[in-house]
Design a protein that fits this description.
- The chain is of the alpha/beta class and 315 residues long.
- Strands 1, 2, 3, 4, 5, 6, 7, 8, 9 and 10 form a 10-stranded mixed beta sheet that branches.
- It contains 12 helices and 10 strands.
């Protein structure tokens, strides 16, 4: 019998409506080099407002990860939410798979949209891209936020047992699930308190709708992220970022947050959200938004060294 209803596709349509209600519109930009980028952009950008770029992690698409934040942020910023290459409706015919290439595509997209300088928030894989963007195009970045982004990981960390998975192949099988049980594994490692009941039919529907397009290319993205990675090769940043992490993150353990803080600047602001895993955008959206707002919106005086809350657990 042909499938007549898809929970995943229906939710995707609801998210599109939500983004539209927040004042954004869907756009597709041909960068002219074999790369096409999809992006949600302000329907009517306000010149007086700062520009804010939200970069998603590995998962369904940008809407699923940023939906809880777009509406409140769009009230204060011109918000831009692209799908990274090989996610959503973005793709390329070029062979590059590095986060450096992803960052170059994002900046080319921002150029096409007329953006000069922007605040950048990157979550998980999007944090790798945001970090690279800040390294390559530092003059374009105002404030930078890195959320659960293990940019300071090294290839040897997996061999030394830092992660729940023991190989890149095992990581791929969980991060890009092709069976319902692998989706359950993904939920278990992403959430501190994962959903207890997930019907197999819903999980299979999610795989069919969200996890089959560009599968080989996404595998190559993960492999490129890990291969030959050394902390000594990671460039420093010109400005200190805000670092946000989940207390119980097992995708990128909190040790990587401390390592990142030391690498970029010992005085960088690190906010640890308690009772949260890797998917803090889903588990603790109110706490995450509060921290983002304080850093991005509140007057600079609230961030001077005497008032910073480095390492604080956000309630």
């Amino acid at each position: 019998m042909a499938k007549c209803f898809s929970f995943t596709a229906t939710r995707d349509q609801c998210l599109r409506f939500s983004f539209s209600q927040s004042g954004l519109k869907s756009t597709v930009t041909d960068l002219g080099d074999g790369t096409v980028m999809h992006c949600w952009v302000p329907r009517r950008p306000k010149p007086a407002r700062p520009d804010l770029l939200l970069l998603h992690g590995i998962g369904a698409n940008a809407m699923w990860q940023w939906n809880d934040f777009v509406s409140p942020l769009a009230a204060r910023f011109n918000v831009y939410v692209p799908d990274l290459v090989f996610f959503g409706d973005s793709y390329t015919t070029r062979p590059e798979r590095s986060e450096q290439f992803q960052a170059q595509c994002v900046v080319a997209l921002m150029d096409a949209l007329g953006l000069k300088k922007m605040n950048v928030v990157g979550m998980s894989y999007g944090g790798f891209v945001a970090y690279s963007l800040a390294v390559q195009f530092g003059e374009r970045v105002d404030k930078l936020v890195l959320i659960c982004a293990g940019v300071c990981l090294e290839e040897k960390d997996m061999e030394e047992g830092m992660f729940r998975v023991r190989s890149v192949d095992e990581a791929v099988s969980v991060l890009l699930p092709q069976q319902p049980e692998k989706v359950r594994d993904l939920l278990r490692i992403s959430f501190h308190r994962p959903p207890k009941r997930m019907p197999t039919c819903f999980l299979q529907d999610f795989i069919d709708v969200m996890c089959t397009d560009h599968l080989q290319e996404r595998i190559e993205l993960i492999v490129a992220l890990h291969k030959d990675r050394k902390l000594s090769d990671l460039p420093k940043l010109a400005k200190s970022p805000l670092i946000i992490w989940g207390e119980h993150d097992v995708v990128f353990p909190i040790e990587l947050a401390e390592r990142l803080k030391r690498h970029v600047d010992g005085n960088a602001q690190l906010e640890v959200i308690k009772d949260a895993g890797h998917a803090i955008n889903a588990e603790k959206p109110k706490e995450m938004y509060k921290i983002l707002k304080t850093f991005l919106v509140d007057p600079p005086a609230s961030h001077k060294p005497g008032n910073q809350t480095n390492g604080r657990k956000a309630d």
